[in-house]
Amino acid sequence: MSIFEQRTYTIRTGLVQEYLQLYHREGFDVHCRHLGPPVGWFFTEVGELNQVMMMWRYDSHADRETRRDRLYADPDWLAFVPKTATYIEKMENRIIRPAFFSPLQ
After folding, report:
1. Mean pLDDT, 10 residues at a time, over the chain (105 residues)?
2. How many angstroms separate the CA atoms of 70 and 34, rounded?
3. Which DSSP letter does residue 12 get?
4. Dihedral pair phi/psi, residue 55, rounded to 5°
5. CATH code at 14?
6. Residue 58 belongs to some domain of the structure
7. What is the extent of the structural domain holding 24?
8. Total structural domains within the chain
9. CA 26, CA 1: separation in Å to the nearest integer?
């Protein structure tokens, strides 16, 4: 059964769309090159605002570790990450597992 990584970034007020543009332009392809296609990318409209969420699927914790090690060995990713510092106020990360009846397995 797969595991899913849910990341939530709280972005400085007023900068969500600018952050998404930067990520799409410079980070998305590199991320996908190593982590595979995301399960989804989201941003809040109601509730706690100024948050973006992404979800990635992995076969196991070992698979996640291997893919993320490759990501952080990529010079393109290492050049991109510092550009995000001015946008991100808080980062949260969860590893979640689907219930046996979930359509995502």
Report:
1. 95 97 98 97 96 97 98 98 97 96 90
2. 6
3. P
4. -135, 135
5. 3.30.70.100
6. no
7. 6-53+73-94
8. 1
9. 32
